């Protein structure tokens, strides 16, 4: 039973036709507003779901065959060319002496 029918049945004896029309219009407006709010709720719920999926969902970090081929191509070309002269980085050895801390004193 709709809102209009319920109101009509409750108020048939005491209401005038103008009052009933006002109540029917008010009820229709409420039903329209209710439908609008339900649609808005569904849209917002979907936005939250999409946001959570974007933040916490599976990430697509899988590489395709073309990307793998590009990495292999770099290895193949480097193997066929002459090896580059690889220089060893200079290493420097630093030695120092330190006084042993005496008990009860701060180290400066």
Describe the structure in brief.
60% of the residues lie in helices and 0% in strands. It has helices at 3-11, 17-56, 65-80. α1 (3-11) runs antiparallel to α2 (17-56).
Q: Strand fraction band? A: under 5%
Identify low-pLDDT runs.
Answer: none
The separation of the N and C termini measures 89 Å
What percentage of residues falls in helices of 4 or more residues? 55-70%
Q: Helix and strand succession?
A: HHH
Shape: elongated
Largest sheet: none
In words, what does this structure look like?
This protein is mainly α. The protein has helices at 3-11, 17-56, 65-80. Helix 1 runs antiparallel to helix 2. The longest helix is centred in the middle third of the chain and has 40 residues, at 17-56.
Primary descriptors:
108 residues; mainly alpha
